[in-house]
């Protein structure tokens, strides 16, 4: 890409994903977010954003079950102590989080 091309795009982002028109509307993958997608669940919007396809209900049920069944509230199973140890060893933030995960 030449420097002329870079300057042509420095003040705008050209995308097919969407655009916000402040105070008016928000377009998300060609649909009006506040009118066309207002009754969708969070999971349906998430899948639509990734795939660009309207998700089927049975797929959403499975994904929602996976999301809920792996959202454990017990803090002792999360590897916070590993992340804390990496932090005290003066490791980088990303390495500490990667190790914790």
Structure description:
The structure is a single chain. By secondary structure, the protein is mainly alpha-helical. It folds into two domains: 1-54, no CATH class; 74-101, no CATH class. The protein is 46% helix and 10% strand. It contains five helices and three strands, in the order αβββαααα. Strands 1-2-3 form a three-stranded antiparallel β-sheet, with no helix packed on it. The longest helix is centred in the middle third of the chain and has 13 residues, at 57-69. It is flat and about 45 Å long. The two termini are 37 Å apart.
Structural class: mainly alpha
Which regions are unreliable across 5 or more consecutive residues at pLDDT < 50? none
The best one-word shape is flat
Characterize the biggest β-sheet. Answer: 3 strands, antiparallel
How many E-type strands?
Answer: 3
> How are strands sequenced across the largest beta sheet?
1-2-3
List the helices and strands and how they pair.
Elements: H1 3-8, E1 18-21, E2 25-28, E3 31-32, H2 42-51, H3 57-69, H4 80-88, H5 93-100
Antiparallel strand pairs: 1-2, 2-3
Helix pairs in contact: 4-5
Descriptive labels:
3-stranded antiparallel β-sheet; flat; 101 residues; mainly alpha; single chain; 46% helix; 2 domains; 5 helices
């Amino acid at each position: 890409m030449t420097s002329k091309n870079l300057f042509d795009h420095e003040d705008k982002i050209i995308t097919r994903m969407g655009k916000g028109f402040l105070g008016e509307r928000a377009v998300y993958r060609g649909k009006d977010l506040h009118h066309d997608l207002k009754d969708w669940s969070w999971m349906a919007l998430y899948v639509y954003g990734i795939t660009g396809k309207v998700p089927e209900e049975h797929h959403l049920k499975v994904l929602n079950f996976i999301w809920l069944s792996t959202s454990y509230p017990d803090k002792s199973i999360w590897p916070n102590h590993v992340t804390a140890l990496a932090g005290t060893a003066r490791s980088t933030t990303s390495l500490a989080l990667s190790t914790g995960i």
